[in-house]
Design a protein that fits this description.
There is one protein chain. The protein has 108 residues and is an alpha+beta fold. It has one domain (2-105): TolA/TonB C-terminal domain. Helix content is 18%, strand content 43%. The protein is built from two helices and seven strands. The longest helix is centred in the last third of the chain and has 13 residues, at 75-87. Mean pLDDT is 79; it is low at 1-11 and 20-27.
Amino acid sequence: MVCLSAALLGAGVASVSIHAQSEDAPGSKRHVKYLGKPVYPDLAKKLNLAGTVKVEVTVGTDGKVKRTRVLGGHPVLATEAEKAAMQSEFDPGPKETTEIIEFRFGAQ
């Protein structure tokens, strides 16, 4: 499994990590062209929520995210993480791959 981390400057978001997974080629990774930046929800701010949301994305051969599935995290944060994951874009590849993006939210 390969891990790529990037810091975000969005309000309340500390960082995002991407773990590349390919069923046919363990350890392969898709280069990330753009990572969506989640919005820290107002309700999360009011409740002072922090935590990590894991989102599994299916990336098509064109590099666009085709599907998302939340694997874990607080439901208040998960919706925004899933929206950001859908906006992400990867380099094109010869086949569909599955990636896991971790969005870490924290009050800042």
